[in-house]
Design goal:
UNC-50 family protein; UNC-50; 9 helices; transmembrane; mainly alpha; transmembrane helix
Length: about 240
């Protein structure tokens, strides 16, 4: 089946809610937080049964969209946003932070994997699978940075002192490590690739950055909150 045919079939299922397996999508979300290796075993099974690694059920995407809505509410409360500010924040998160960044990351990793990491020439990495890997890695980041952080920010993180800075920066560090690790698992699950340990290399940079920002007293969470305020501010 061609990539266009797969995309068309995936899009058609958006209007058939009864055909979506929301229970399985919830299972995936849970295990992305506690045991992400299990999630990718299903991707391998799908390849064997349906000849594609990428998801063919939009249920996960629907639930992720709902998660983005509710997590944006947490940030709207933490930032004291108006209703219009909340709408702008949500649109920015879904179209820039999630989809926009995902398109860039998925395309770069799709190209580099096919160019440099393939062991065979008769199969290639599906772009849709690369985007699925991004969505998988994005979900734990969403929970940590858009649910946990805004809840504890006013009382435990919003301060220039050492402990609040260390706590906030550690949450950002864990979220970034989660993203890198789940991305690594996603590409390691593909039997047509080798040398996938390269995907773990950014962890060294993340660790150095974590130590450096805490040592320098830079509270990333406070900077992020200021940036979020800036990008949704209204001129009227």
């Amino acid at each position: 089946m061609s990539a266009w045919a797969k995309l068309t079939r995936f899009a058609r299922r958006f209007v058939h809610f009864k055909q979506m397996d929301f229970e399985f999508a919830l299972w995936q979300m849970l295990y992305l937080l506690i045991q992400p290796q299990k999630v990718y075993r299903n991707f391998i099974y799908r390849k064997r049964t349906k000849d594609q690694f990428a998801r063919d059920d939009p249920a996960f995407l629907v639930l992720l969209s709902l998660s983005l809505i509710f997590s944006s509410i947490f940030y709207a409360v933490a930032l004291g946003l108006t209703t219009w500010g909340f709408v702008k924040f949500f649109l920015w998160v879904i179209f820039i932070d999630c989809i926009g960044v995902g398109l860039i990351v998925a395309t770069i990793l799709w190209w580099s994997s096919n160019q440099f990491l393939r062991k065979v020439q008769d199969q290639d990495v599906e772009w849709g699978y690369c985007f699925d890997v991004h969505l998988n890695a994005f979900f734990p980041m969403l929970i940590l940075l858009h649910v946990l952080l805004p809840i504890i920010y006013p009382t435990l993180v919003d301060s220039p002192f050492f402990l609040p800075t260390a706590l906030g920066n550690t949450i950002w560090f864990i979220a970034a490590v989660y993203y890198v690790y789940i991305t690594f698992l996603g590409y390691t699950a593909l039997p047509i690739l080798h040398r996938t340990q390269y995907f773990l290399y950014p962890m060294t940079f993340l660790f150095i950055s974590w130590v450096a920002t805490i040592t320098a007293g830079w509270n990333i969470s406070r900077s992020a909150m200021g940036f979020y305020h800036y990008r949704v501010r209204s001129d009227d």
